[in-house]
Amino acid sequence: EYLPLFLYQLNICLEKIFLYNKLQDLSIHDSLTQIYNRRYFIERFNEEFNRAKKSSFKLSFLMIDIDLFKKINDSYGHIMGDAVLRSVVNMITDSLRQIDFVGRLGGEEFSVALPKTSKSAAIIVANRIVKKVSTYKIKAFDEVVQTTVSIGVSSYPQDSLHSDMLIEISDKALYKAKKSGRNKVSWF
Prior knowledge:
This protein is an alpha/beta fold. The protein has six helices and eight strands; from the N terminus they run αβαβααββαβββαβ.
């Protein structure tokens, strides 16, 4: 006689577990691209930075921005813009190792943490991403679009001994890449 009550309670518990897991996933991932959101990426990056400091590992950081993204949105609409964002994220993640991680900082700007990676190795990864994106045709509905990205690179301990400065240096390098013609990798 208690079995139906027990099954009902068990069902409620399982549903709560499912909802908790879904909520946790939503709190750390960007809903459009399914990569880490800004808050969680920065949290993970700081953990990785502290690990690199403690263990004397190298750590590199990429700041990536889709070139002329506003023009894509204005010309083709936001649905195509969303397709471009998802496609670029797929190309970025396909270019990374399992230990690397990527996050959406906002809009069309992404960041990548490359644990145990020197600056020269990070530049190779960044150039691979730039080449991959520039040669890929993104198809959505009846439209085909090509885009490019610009990337700024910084590395610990070479560029800074502080995580926030590493991000700042990478951001300035990204601005340098954009200012010098886009579709390229820049560093200091």
